[in-house]
Amino acid sequence: MAAYGSVVKFWPYNMSLTLNHYTYGLEEAGLEHAYRNSLTMAAWCAVIGAAITFAGAYCSRRPGGRCAAAADPLPGDAAMAVPGMVLGIGYILFFNAPANR
Questions:
Q1: Which of 10, 33, 74, 79 is 20 to 30 A from 66 in CA distance terms?
Q2: What pLDDT was estimated at residue 10?
């Protein structure tokens, strides 16, 4: 009933089907902006992460290279640190926004 009630125009008086409730919710929430931000962040993380990983792999395969010891743990450390940092920054930005107080 909840799913059916969400597509009914005006319960129980006008039972015609509509998607206006969903379009209004998507427009007012600004989801296209959040979705665009997520895609931008994912693209930058992919580019920078790939560059760091390939640089570490290159340094570790060089014979006698001095950068191998410094570059080997970097991709693993970044993979563990980034999710926590992103979540923490997300919480800070959400709770500091004036509209969320």
A1: 79
A2: 84
